[in-house]
Design brief:
GO terms for molecular function: DNA binding; DNA-binding transcription factor activity. Keywords: DNA-binding, Transcription, Transcription regulation. By secondary structure, the protein is an alpha/beta fold. The chain is 44% helix and 22% strand. The protein has helices at residues 8-20, 23-30, 34-48, 64-90, 107-121, 134-142, 202-211, 215-219, 227-235, 245-249, 283-301; strands at 53-55, 60-62, 96-102, 125-131, 148-153, 160-174, 194-197, 221-224, 240-244, 259-262, 269-277. Helix 1 (8-20) packs across helix 3, helix 1 (8-20) crosses helix 4 and helix 2 packs across helix 3 (34-48). The mean pLDDT is 86.
């Protein structure tokens, strides 16, 4: 009995449709026309004799079996990527493509210092960057969309390995003209004036954990979509916020009139780390990259790694 085996291209179409929920956007993600993607999926359904997707004018709905097959296809494609990773890892280290996700509370402050040195040190490395929230970055990692992530820990990211780079201390930013207390402790933070990032940014959780005041989560005004937005609000006298040291060092508070003081607490920092999927065949490359990042940040930020 002959069994039809799906092609990798068909599996890619199926996974893209699951991710995007729309034929047009899935086709764009696969760099093909919508008709090509639709025809490929219809051929897959015809040859295996199963309806995978219910099609209407407005909705793309996977059948229960179609959803299970799409989830399995994700794992198959990830394994295929790892085959290529094994071959790449056997060659010259940190040469060729590497896909890196970076969270928004790290990317604009750290990457300008890192990238020129990485290009100088590893000229054959082709680094493709994605800026994503912590949860989105972890999802991209486990789906095989990226190879590794620059993340702030602690954060639950599933089955991963990590290499710590450095500790990033938290500061409290005060509005212009306001005299900060001599010692900024969690108890000195006015919960009615505290501005925090929206849900989805791990910095909010790190800040609340450092303060160890449960009522802050309920009372704080959570308005900011980015650290830049929060600092502009602080600069306009709308409240105070917590900001990481790397952002202060990068000049985020310049020309705002805001003043930042280090938070004095039991755990006043977050850990910046490079993470990757557990068991990845490129682990030696990732550890080499982590060591390079650690050295660069130590030299550029004047801290012990």
């Amino acid at each position: 009995m002959n069994t039809y085996l799906p092609t990798l291209k068909q599996l890619q179409y199926l996974v893209a449709l699951k991710d995007h929920g729309h034929f047009g956007r899935a086709a764009e993600a696969c760099f093909v026309t919508q008709s090509t993607l639709s025809a490929g999926l219809r051929e897959l359904e015809s040859l295996i004799g199963i309806t995978l997707v219910e099609r209407t004018r407005r909705v793309v709905r996977f059948t229960p079996l179609g959803l299970r097959i799409a989830e399995k296809a994700e794992r198959v494609l990830r394994e295929v990527d790892e085959l290529a990773d094994m071959a790449r890892a056997a060659g010259k280290p940190l040469a060729g493509e590497l896909r890196l996700s970076v969270i928004p509370t790290i990317a604009p402050f750290l990457l300008p210092r890192l990238l020129p040195r990485l290009r100088q040190q590893w000229p054959e490395l082709k680094l493709f960057l994605r800026e994503e929230t912590s949860q989105a970055a972890c999802d991209s990692l486990h789906r095989g969309h990226v190879d590794c992530v620059l993340l702030a820990l602690p954060y639950a990211c599933g089955e991963v390995e990590n290499a710590d780079l450095f500790e990033d201390r938290l500061f409290v930013a005060f509005p212009p003209g306001e005299q900060p207390p001599a010692h900024v402790t969690p108890a000195s933070i006015d919960e009615h004036r505290l501005l925090l990032l929206e849900d989805g940014h791990c910095l909010k959780d790190h800040a609340l954990a450092a303060c160890n005041r449960p009522e802050l989560r309920a009372e704080a005004t959570m308005l900011g979509t980015s650290l830049h937005t929060l600092i502009q609000m602080v600069g306009n006298g709308l409240g105070m916020t917590l900001v990481p040291e790397m952002a202060v060092q990068s000049g985020l508070l310049d020309n705002t009139g805001a003043t930042a003081r280090p938070l004095e607490a039991d755990h006043p920092s977050r850990r910046i780390a490079l993470i990757w999927r557990k068991g990845s065949p490129r682990v030696k490359e990732f550890r080499l990259l982590a060591q390079a990042l650690k050295t660069i940040t130590k030299e550029g930020m004047g801290r012990a790694a």
